[in-house]
Design goal:
The chain is α+β, with helices and mostly antiparallel strands. The protein has two domains: 36 residues, no CATH class; 37 residues, no CATH class. Helices cover 41% and strands 31% of the residues. The protein has a four-stranded antiparallel sheet. The longest helix is centred in the middle third of the chain and has 23 residues. It is elongated. The chain starts with a strand and ends with a helix.
Length: 74
């Protein structure tokens, strides 16, 4: 694993998630990289999933405009 450097996910223009030989997960979004232990990365993924679920409820209830709704209203 010492020479491992695998990209686990990548989104052009946004960032990537990779694992390195030190068994750390590197989450890069734009110019910011957060280095996490695998367990902390898993907890972060759950946190973001829960936030997306809450955001979906707010948008569906009309309590929050999405960027696409704002674009088409103008």
């Amino acid at each position: 694993m010492a020479d491992t450097n695998l990209i686990l996910a990548e989104h052009a223009g946004l960032g990537e998630v990779r694992i390195c030989g030190c068994n750390s997960i590197h989450l890069r979004v734009g110019p910011v990289t957060i280095t996490l232990a695998p367990e902390a990365f898993a907890q972060t993924a759950i946190l973001i999933r829960e936030a997306m679920e809450s955001l979906s409820v707010l948008v569906a209830a009309g309590e929050l405009e999405t960027q696409s709704q704002t674009q088409y209203a103008n």
